[in-house]
Amino acid sequence: MVKYVYDFSEGDKSMKDLLGGKGANLAEMTKLGLPVPPGFTITTQACRAYLKDSVVPESLETEVTTALRRVEDLMGRRLGDPQNPLLVSVRSGAKFSMPGMMETVLNIGLNDESVKGLAEKSGNERFAWDSYRRLIQMFGKTVLDIDGDLFADALEDLKKERGVTGDTELNADDLRGLVETFKKIVAKTKGMDFPQDPRTQMDMAIEAVFRSWNTDRARIYRRRERIPHDLGTAVNICTMVFGNMGEGSGTGVCFTRDPSSGHSGVYGDYLENAQGEDVVAGIRNTLALADLERIDEKSYNELRAIMRKLETHYRDMCDIEFTIEQGKLWMLQTRVGKRTAAAAFRIATQLVEEKLITRNEALDRVTGEQLTQLMFPQFDAEADKELVAKGMAASPGAAVGKIAFDNAQAEAAAAAGVKCILVRRETNPDDLPGMVAAEGVLTARGGKTSHAAVVARGMGKTCVCGAESLDINADAGTVKIGDRVLTADDVIAIDGQTGEIFIGDVPVVDSPVTTYLAHGLAAGLEAAGDNEGTRELVESVDRLLTHADKVRRLRVRANADTPEDSRRSIEFGAEGIGLCRTEHMFLGARRPLVERAILSEAGSQERRDAFDELEKLQKQDFLQMLEVMDGKSMTVRLIDPPLHEFMPALGDLEVKVAVDRVAGTVDPDDEKMLVAVRRFHEQNPMLGLRGVRLGIYLPGLFGLQMRALCEAAAELVSRGFDPRPEIMVPLVGSVRELQLIREEGESIIAQVSADRGVDLSKITIGAMIELPRAAMTAEDLAEEADFFSFGTNDLTQTVWGFSRDDVEGVFFADYIEAGIFGVSPFESIDVHGVGTVVSEGVRRARSTKPNIKLGVCGEHGGDPASIHFFHEVGIDYVSCSPFRVPVARLEAGRAAVGGGSTTA
Ligand code: ADP
Ligand code: MG
Ligand code: MG
Description:
Blueprint: E1 5-7, H1 16-31, E2 39-42, H2 44-53, H3 58-75, E3 78-79, E4 85-86, E5 88-94, E6 104-108, H4 114-122, H5 125-143, H6 148-162, H7 172-190, H8 198-212, H9 216-225, E7 233-239, E8 250-257, E9 264-272, E10 287-288, H10 292-295, H11 297-314, E11 318-325, E12 328-336, H12 341-353, H13 359-364, H14 368-374, E13 378-379, E14 386-390, E15 392-395, E16 398-404, H15 407-415, E17 420-424, H16 432-437, E18 440-443, H17 451-459, E19 462-465, E20 470-473, E21 478-481, E22 484-487, E23 491-495, E24 500-503, E25 508-509, H18 512-519, H19 521-528, H20 532-551, E26 555-559, H21 563-571, E27 576-580, H22 591-599, H23 605-628, E28 633-637, H24 650-663, H25 668-680, H26 692-697, H27 701-718, E29 724-729, H28 735-756, E30 764-769, H29 772-776, H30 778-784, E31 787-791, H31 792-800, H32 804-817, H33 831-848, E32 853-857, H34 864-872, E33 877-880, H35 885-896
Parallel strand pairs: 3-4, 16-17, 17-18, 18-19, 26-27, 26-33, 27-28, 28-29, 29-30, 30-31, 31-32, 32-33
Antiparallel strand pairs: 1-2, 2-7, 5-6, 5-7, 8-9, 8-11, 9-10, 11-12, 13-25, 14-24, 15-19, 16-23, 20-21, 21-22, 23-24
Helix pairs in contact: 4-5, 5-7, 6-7, 12-20, 14-35, 18-19, 18-20, 19-20, 20-35, 22-23, 23-27, 24-25, 27-28, 28-30, 30-33, 31-33, 34-35
The structure holds adenosine-5'-diphosphate and magnesium ion (MG) (2 copies).
C-alpha cells in the first residue's frame, strides 16, 4: 500500500520530491534535534492522486487520523478540544519553493467552544479571539474562496470605529465582535456556516492546499520558473505555536547571511506580538533581528546558535522562519535561501574561503542565468539624475519605465512594447501578472523579505521596496513623492543595487562584471571603483569562471560573422568561431551581383563575371575575420538560405511590372526577374532550394566562397598569420551531396596552395547536421567529413516538422499551457526527441571516426540545460552568441563537475 503520510520524525532533506521542500526541511530540522513543533507531512503523491481523481484517497484519511493521534498524544491535547485545544496549521509546500503562490491556514481547530478553552488555558482572552478571527479570515479566503477584501475591509472599519490604527490595539471584545462579523460574511457569501468541527476544518484545508496547486497564479509562476506542472504539492500539518500571545512573543524571518551581499551577520526582521505572515506583510514596522537581543536575549542566543548549526549542516546560506511563544523559540521553516545573483557568487566564494565547501561544489552553487543577470547594464554614475527617494535595494538591476499602478496597466504597457515599473504600496500574489510584465517593481512598504522582494529576486527582476516616502493612490493614479505628484505618464528609474529612485530616463552603462569579462580582472576592479561589494563580486566571478575553465571538457566557440563580433567573442573567452554565417555578405550593395548571377545563363560569361566580383568582395570579408581570429578555428558555413531571399519580393515586383507596363516603361530586366522570382517561389522555403541543394543547383556559388576563403588564408599565411578556417556545408542529407562539394573544395584548396605557394591542406571540410537523415546516416557522412556541427535550430524544426517563424508566436503558448512542452524546444533542447537524434548522430559518427570533432551551433549552445546535455553525450564544443560565451564557459564547467543545470 502507498504511504501517504510521514511524521516529521520520519523524513529528511533528501525527500523533497515526496515531502516538498518545506516538509523535507522540517523533517531534517526535527532530526537535528531543533525545536520544531510536532507534525506530519502529506506527500506530493497524495496531491497528484487527488488532482487526478478529484477525491481524497480513502487511505489518506485513515493515515491522517493515525498521524494526528500521534501528535495529540505527544502534546497531551486533542485537536479542537473545548477545554484545552490542540491547534494546527495546514501548510502547502512543493518540491520547489513558490513564495506566496499557494496557501497556508493557521489556527485550525478553533471553534465557538475551543476558543473559550484557549482563552482560559492561555489566560489571554484577546489572543484567543485574535486567533479565531484569523482562522475564519484565512479559511474564508483560501478554503472557501471568499474575496479576502471583505474580511480586510471589516477589520479596517472596526479599527476606524474604535479610532485605532494598529490591529494590536483592538481588545478582546472588539475581536469577539469581529469573529461574529466574519462568520456573517461566510454565511452571506457561501450560504453555509463556518465549519465548527475541527477535523472537518482540517480536511477542507488539506483539500484546498491540493487545489491551490492549480490556481492561475501558481501556474503562471511555474511557467516562468520552468517548474513542471505535474509535481503537485505536499501538505504539512504542524502544531501551532503562538507569536501573538502578547509582549514576550513574536515572529520573525532571518537569513544566516545577508541575502544580497553574502556577508555573514545578523540579518532578518522580527515583529512582536504577531502571527504568521504579519512580519512580511508590511502591516506594522518590523524590528531588525539584532534588536531581539535586547528584547529576549535567551531566545536570541539560541537562534544564533541554530543559524550557525543550520549553515554548517546545509553548508550554505539558509533562510529561516521562527516564532517565539512566551520566551520559547520554535523553528517553523528553513531552506537553502534564495539569493541575488551577486550574492550567489560571493557566498559560493566565501564558503570556499571558509573551507566549508570545495571549489567544485562552489561551481554548483552558481548558474549561467545568474551570470547573465550580472552582465546587465547599470545606471551611468556620471549621468545627471534627479534622485527623489530611496527605498531598500531588494533585487539588483537598473530599470527605467513609465509608472504602472496595477496589473492591467502593466500588461497593457508590455503589450504595447512600452517599458514600465509596477508601483504598489506592497505586493501580494495577485500582483504577479503585473510583476511579470514590468521591468521592475517599486513598493512603499515591506522589507527585503516582503513578497515583492522575494518574488522579484526569484524572477531576476529589479526591485526597490519599502520606499516609505512614496504616497501611492492607485485609484487616483497618482504617486506623491515629497511635493511632486507623478502619474502613469511619468517615467521613473529604479536602482536595485542602491535602492535609489529617480525621475526621468537615466542612461545605463556596462556592469563591472561585463567590463571584467571583456577586459580582464584589473579592468573589472577598476570599474568597481571603491565599492567593496562590487570588487568582491568581480573577484568572485573571476575565481569561479577560472575554475570552470580549468575543469570543463566542452570547448566554447562563438557564432560571429563580423570582425567586431569576432573580437568581442574572443574578449569573452571564445576559443574559436563555430558558425560564421555568410549570407549577409551577399545582401545590401552586393545584391545586384547576386541577381545578375541568377538571371544569367549557367556557364555564361555574365555569370562568371558576377561570381568573380563576389569572390573578390568575399575574400575581403574573410581576410578581416581570419585576421581577428588568428590562431583560432573559424568555421565558415557556405551560403544557406533559400535563393529567393536574395531576390525581390514577388508581390512588390508584380505590382511594379504591372504599373510600368501600363505606363509603357517596363524594364526588360524586371520582366526577366519576375519570371525568375515566380520560378523560385516556394510554398515551404525552409524545406526547399537551400543549403547544399543551392550549392549543387548553382554550380560555382560554393566554389567562389571556398576560393575566397582559401585566397584569404593564403594571403594571411604569407603575411605571417596563422589562419585556421574550416569549411562547413549546410543542410546535407546524403553522403553524395557532401562528396560533390568536398571534391570541389579539395581541388580548390590544392589549386590555391599551388598558385600561392603555401600549404593550405590543413583546411578541413565538414557538414552541418540539421536533418534527421544526416544524423541517422552519420556513419556514412563521417567518411567524407572532418567534423560535424549539429545545427540544432534547424534540427529541431526538421525533427518536429514545424517552422519556427510560423509556429512560435501562434501556438507555443497553448502547447506550454497544455503541458506538451515544458519550455520551447527552440530555447532548450528537447532532450527526448531532438536530443536522441543528436546522441544517435554522435554514436554513428564516432563508429566510423572515433576522433571526429563534433560541435553544436545554434542557440542551444548558449542554453544551460542544453549545454549539460551536450556535455553528457560527448560533444566537443558548443558555439553560441558572443554575449552567451561566459555563460557557456561557466555551465560547461558546472556540467564537468556533475552539477545540475539549475539550483532551483
Ligand atoms: P509560506 O510557504 O508562504 O512561507 P508557511 O506554511 O510557511 O507559508 O506559513 C505561513 C506563515 O505562517 C509563516 O509565517 C509561518 O511561519 C507561519 N506558520 C506556519 N505554521 C505555523 C505554526 N504551526 N505555528 C505558528 N506559525 C506558523
Ligand atoms: Mg504564504
Ligand atoms: Mg514559510
